[in-house]
Amino acid sequence: MIDAEGLDAFSLITAHDERHAFDAVVPPIVQTSLFTFSSYDEMLATYRGEKTRPVYSRGLNPTVRFFEEMIAKLEGAEDALGFASGMAAISSTVLAFVEPGDRIVAVRHVYPDAFRLFGTILKRMKVDVTYVDGRNEDEVAAALPGAKLLYLESPTSWVMETHDVGALARLAKQHGAVSVIDNSWASPVFQQPIGLGVDIVLHSASKYLSGHSDVVSGVVAGAKVLIDKIRGESLPYLGGKMAPFEAWLLARGLRTLPIRMKAHEASALEIARRLQNLEVVETVCHPALGNRLPPGLKGTSGLFSFIFREGVNIRAFADQLKLFKLGVSWGGHESLIVPGEVVVQQKAQPNSAQAFGIDPRSVRLHIGLEGTEALWRDIEEALVAAKI
Ligand SMILES: *Cc1c(COP(=O)(O)O)cnc(C)c1O
After folding, report:
1. Using one digit for the tens of pLDDT, what is the confidence trace for 6-50?
2. Quick one: which atom of ligand 1 is closest to the CA of 331?
């Protein structure tokens, strides 16, 4: 949990310099594609790299830069870079560090579209991916020699496996591999991987960083030399840069991130505990149930899954819920449900329920901000209709 001192630090981070914005308490959106020069000489100096200033918003935009600086501070990183989506952040990061013939190591059950990036574009580039159980450090160590990149996600998508991120980052360092982690689930409020020794942390900012389900974007943070490599070698040509309006919405969302995360945590944990006590539930996959949180994970968010026993009509359960809506993504104010039996039938390739660890009798819940008791009542009422 973030303490009072942490919250104070947070408000300093989300403050901005009002001198440049007519004393406005909210920074303006610099909604422009290009920036003009006052003279030939200024243009020339900028092209020669003697002067750094905005030229074109695919490169540098002040609103996007404001958001990037907030994230760099929150993650304890030297620099950050905003992207048009979480997948743009993931693909631009991975593609900046691999060449044909390289190999990367990834924990199993990574975000499904990251798995598909590895199984399609990376495969065509002749980059091999070795999947490992991130809980087994011997297995990770055995896979690392010769690998360029260690790709982490903790907790993992859907099944919520947690890892000792610091220990895995140390193993990557020993073997000269760049470590990368998808930190979307925990957000910097509950996990700051740079401080645990990870080289690069990335987010789908479409989730908790935005928090209002009105943004699709991503962000990457790390040491300046690593971020510069992505900024110089992949982002400009793949072109998935964050737009100013999204950056502005994200800067707004970040102001309430700690209190939103605490509310998601408390509500989700209570609902997970109650589900665990139900006869019809076999297992609840929530990092705080059953075991202690791994080192470095300071809290839990609103996303978890559970597995129903036989004899529950999952279709009826999902259709009967009123507050929980059927919908992908998560991290907003609203509660959501995704049935595993739908996901395992997804047409996208490569697809493998086994690779994602999705049990067809599982459902994934995102616990929003509607209030624990109202959400629990919704679940109980839907279960009445779902028991056959
Ligand atoms: C949603 C998500 C992504 C992809 O982000 P987009 O913004 O949808 O491109 C990556 N990782 C995780 C864990 C996600 O939940």
Report:
1. 545 455 455 566 556 788 888 889 999 999 999 999 999 999 999
2. 15
